[in-house]
Amino acid sequence: MESPAEIVQHTAGGMIGASWLMIAFPLLGAAILLILGRMTNRWGHLLGVAMSLASFVVAVLTFLEIIGLPAEQRRQAVHLYEFIPGMVDMGLLIDPLSISFALLITGVGSLIHIYSIGYMSHDPERRRFFSYLNLFVAAMLLLVLADNYVGLFIGWEGVGLASYLLIGFWQFKPSAAVAAKKAFIVNRVGDFGLLVGMFIILATFHTLTFSELGKQIAEHPPSGGAVTAIGLLLLLGACGKSAQLPLQSWLLDAMEGPTPVSALIHAATMVTAGVYLVVRSGAFFFPPDSTQAIAVSVVGAATLLAGAIIGCAKDDIKKGLAGSTMSQIGYMMLGAGLGPAGYAFAIGHLITHGFFKADLFLGAGSVMHGMNDEVNMRKYGGLRKHMPITFATFFIGYLAIIGFPLLSGYFTKDGIIETAVHHQPILGWLAVLGAGITGFYMSRMVFMTFFGEKRWEKDAHPHESPAVMTWPLMILSIGALFLGGYLILSNRLYFFLSPAVGTAEATPEFDFASTAGLVTLALVAVGAGFAWVRYGRAEVPAVAPRGSFLTTFARRDLYGDALNESLFMRPGQWLTRFAVYFDNRGIDGLVNGLAAGIGGTSGRLRRIQTGFARSYALSILFGAALLAGALLLVGNI
Amino acid sequence: MTTHYLVLSGLLFAIGAMGVLIRRNAIVVFMCVELMLNACNLAFVAFARQNGNLEGQIIAFFVMVVAAAEVVVGLAIIVTIFRTRRSASVDDANLLKY
């Protein structure tokens, strides 16, 4: 078992030295589009795509330079400028972990940018949309590339802001505005955890820089309450961004944004931030049997089941996919909680998920594009002949996500399941169960959308989307086909990542015939078969049947919103009501009472001013007499 | 000797003050004010004579000058008020109040 390699200060220039361009390009794009405003309406989307692609090119070149270095020198810190004097210098950490994320973010992000040209072509605000997309990519890149927690936090908040802007992009819809606010507020809860975790790190280690932390932890492996607290607080942060229980509620509502946003949030950015945080902070989740590490796995396992169950009951194609995102991120968290043994599979699943989930979401967007923005799957059906490319790519994404043998998802998800069964048997078998449910709900989605009878609205004329939308789909589906096998077989990703995240006791071996793997396949087959019986062969009712209480339970997102409402919203309302009452009656009462008292008294005193000069003269006389009397009484004059 | 002057001065002052307080006619009130001033003048002059220096007498002159100036301004006001309101009563000029 080896800890991560030491971080080297990068001195020579080269692509690594210029890696800040990766963040600068999309940031510049966002700035230009936002500052110049309507002037850029005609070419704004092209600039957005160009900036994203430029960032991708920088990422690829940096990646090539990294793999040219010997393994122990692959962690390079690039100093940029002094940020908070004496505490934090802003810099970038270019290592296998961050560059993997950067490639995913810029690569899949660029494809989503290209797709959006077509998807948003009828929207008058397309230019603003692209500026937010660029901002999103820039913030996410800062998050994964920063070499300290402060930079990470800035990116973290930037992602939150960009997601708020994008989810609420159609803010004229009240539901979108509310969803954006909800995402922002739920994320604040997680941000609070991250922030307090950072405070404790700073108090314990007196630094927030990854390289310094790494050195200190290597010299004196930390232990005790502080580390547990740090781990649990960072986990809270990760739960917020990655939509894990108990902070999952924003993700399903986030579907109010335009579909490419959902793809961006779910595949390339945002929700992966939590997994990144846990893996990057691996030292605080060590050893894998510590409280905080187990907490990560438990949260992951619980969420993967919850997400899968929610996915089963949704008729809205995007919400179904959102449930599946929760579930898949749950797998990643489960893997990330297992320590270095699980990191490679977690990150691998993150990357392949980035591809097939973007593929699925963009495919769903393509379907909606052809169906007048209808999202209810009960009004789809039989679309495979009308949208052949969308169907083919969606189907590949579907096979990948359910873990069809030899596709991307099979390798990475199975890897997580096997590792989990080995280290945390109970959670591992729950993950196996979750895979079976995945097989059911994803098959249900495919059967309801592309197979069976037409259940369209009268004015629906489904048509294949333009090439600018189908090409990204095809590229993504190639990733969904082969990427997993490439990364996992012969442990390519494991050895690539090991300088950044450390190695496990035993090098993981992908086993094609493990018990858990076979059971998983069997369960997935059962799930898919059940879905075929219910939704493929049988007629799908156009109106959702009432269903059992379990269906209702899943449709209502496992009562997550109801729970939040009764636990936090109502007491919060009581608190504000009390505060308003206290403010009105208590504080205002005091101030107003004082003012009224003084006003009343002066109103009485005012009556002395009668306007009769003679009465004033009388009071002057009395005053003079009084004064003279007093002087006489005192004597000496 | 001085005592008699002072008693006279006090009596004149008291008469003047009473007049200011109880008379309504502005002209009479004005004359009463003059009476009070001159009562003070009498006291000043009496003390000056008793002490054998001129300071009291000088102050008396100052008082006269001030009284003359006051008469000029005061009478002008009274005349103006009378012209506008056809009344010289101080009680009628009571608009400046709460």
TrEMBL record, chain B:
Keywords per UniProt: Cell membrane, Membrane, NAD, Oxidoreductase, Quinone, Translocase, Transmembrane, Transmembrane helix, Transport
TM ranges: 6-22, 27-47, 59-82
Entry's EC annotation: 7.1.1.-
Pfam families hit by this protein: Oxidored_q2
Keyword Cytoplasm in record: no
Main localization category: membrane
Catalytic activity: a quinone + NADH + 5 H(+)(in) = a quinol + NAD(+) + 4 H(+)(out)
Molecular functions (GO terms): NADH dehydrogenase (quinone) (non-electrogenic) activity
Domain of life: Bacteria
HAMAP family, A to Z: NDH1_NuoK
Task of the protein: NDH-1 shuttles electrons from NADH, via FMN and iron-sulfur (Fe-S) centers, to quinones in the respiratory chain. The immediate electron acceptor for the enzyme in this species is believed to be a menaquinone. Couples the redox reaction to proton translocation (for every two electrons transferred, four hydrogen ions are translocated across the cytoplasmic membrane), and thus conserves the redox energy in a proton gradient.
UniProt family annotation: Belongs to the complex I subunit 4L family.
Protein name: NADH-quinone oxidoreductase subunit K
Organism of provenance: Nonomuraea guangzhouensis
